[in-house]
């Protein structure tokens, strides 16, 4: 496929001097070396991303991208496609898990209709309330088990939409979320194709399929891989196997990374979007913090594939498999705490505390 889309160049954040200053600052806080465990490398990572020894997370944005999938008609999910638009309404009404958590933690919530098979009534933006952006490429993708889910032009449009959405959002932190019945199938397909992992190891129960349902899902996904066997490059695979919301998230990640925003990655589907973005621009991973390890089996394989990048180890392990950005929201206070430690915790010298026993 030929893609008419400009991919931003993501620079290497490696700055030996800044890293040394940050590590010195962390090591000389009033605590034993390493006593704050994984909060310390998290603080280091945020300081590196933001280029500051006293980082401040400002105007954090929760971005939830939603779309429908032609594959859903093949029974790859325990829920009907109508749940996609119904959950979008739930997000906007404030009743979904991500809505509740965004309110709790002061995260601005933006929901993007990337390709939902229903039109939503436009509503005025209200400060402090979730906002809806309509960036619909089409009302759902084609069935990937019979051929490409998207055309190259559609995929490029979704990428451009994601970049444009992030360009127009304030702040220096982006939390990723998604909604789309059938999109664990998309993540499984991308993981299998781009990482060469057997499909059976990439595919789980998603929204709650029983054993027979998982077997049916795997059979359908095998058909999708075969129908698109020539789509092996990242953008080709994304167009052939992906969804509009995943492609929009890829664009959002690329733009956020180019702006040196902290990117908080939720679960399996958003990690698949990061995988594609990183295949296009590897330094994307320097800007990412992985919020949690999903109960979906493919997520562990995906995170393991990102090693040796240390931030591929997720902050939380709570058996989550909801999506929406819920895990990213739950992890958010850890990022805030890491920044507060860097900015506010006293050094041994400033506090007049001895650094070792006499």
UniProtKB/TrEMBL annotation:
Pathway the protein takes part in: Nucleoside biosynthesis; alpha-ribazole biosynthesis; alpha-ribazole from 5,6-dimethylbenzimidazole: step 1/2
Assigned keywords, A-Z: Cobalamin biosynthesis, Glycosyltransferase, Transferase
Active site: 324
Gene3D superfamilies: 1.10.1610.10, 3.40.50.10210
TM regions (residue ranges): none
Keyword Glycosyltransferase: yes
tRNA-binding found in the keyword field: no
GO biological process: cobalamin biosynthetic process
Family, per entry: Belongs to the CobT family.
Function: Catalyzes the synthesis of alpha-ribazole-5'-phosphate from nicotinate mononucleotide (NAMN) and 5,6-dimethylbenzimidazole (DMB).
Name of the protein described by the UniProt record: Nicotinate-nucleotide--dimethylbenzimidazole phosphoribosyltransferase
Species lineage: Bacteria, Pseudomonadati, Pseudomonadota, Betaproteobacteria, Burkholderiales
């Amino acid at each position: 496929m030929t893609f008419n889309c400009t991919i931003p160049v993501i620079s290497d954040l490696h700055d030996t001097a800044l890293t040394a200053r940050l590590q010195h600052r962390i090591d000389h806080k009033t605590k034993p070396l390493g006593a704050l465990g994984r909060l310390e490398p998290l603080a280091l990572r945020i300081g590196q991303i933001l280029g500051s020894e006293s980082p401040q997370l400002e105007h954090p944005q929760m971005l939830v991208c939603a779309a429908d999938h032609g594959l859903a008609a093949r029974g790859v999910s325990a829920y009907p496609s109508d749940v996609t638009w119904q959950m979008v309404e739930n997000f906007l009404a404030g009743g979904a898990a991500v809505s509740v958590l965004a309110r709790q933690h002061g995260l601005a919530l933006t929901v993007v209709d990337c390709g939902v098979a229903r039109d939503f009534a436009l509503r005025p933006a209200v400060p402090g309330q979730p906002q809806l952006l309509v960036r619909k490429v089409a009302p759902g993708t084609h069935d990937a088990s019979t051929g490409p889910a998207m055309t190259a032009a559609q995929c490029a449009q979704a990428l451009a939409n994601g970049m444009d959405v992030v360009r127009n959002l304030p702040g220096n932190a982006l939390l990723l979320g998604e909604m789309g019945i059938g999109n664990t199938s998309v993540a499984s397909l991308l993981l299998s194709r781009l990482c060469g992992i057997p499909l059976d190891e990439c595919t789980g129960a998603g929204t709650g399929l029983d054993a027979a349902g998982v077997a049916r899902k795997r059979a359908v996904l095998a058909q999708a891989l075969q129908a698109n066997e020539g789509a092996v490059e990242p953008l080709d695979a994304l167009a052939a196997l992906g969804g509009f919301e995943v492609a929009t998230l890829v664009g959002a990640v690329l733009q956020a990374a180019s702006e040196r925003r902290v990117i908080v990655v939720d679960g399996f589907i958003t990690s698949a979007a990061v995988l594609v973005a990183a295949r296009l621009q590897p330094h994307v991973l320097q800007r990412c913090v992985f919020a949690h390890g999903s109960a979906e089996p493919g997520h562990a394989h995906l995170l393991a594939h990102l090693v040796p990048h240390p931030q591929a180890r997720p902050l939380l392990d709570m058996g989550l498999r909801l999506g929406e950005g819920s895990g990213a929201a739950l992890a958010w206070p850890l990022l805030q705490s890491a920044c507060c430690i860097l900015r506010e915790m006293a050094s041994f010298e400033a506090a007049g505390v001895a650094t070792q026993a006499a």
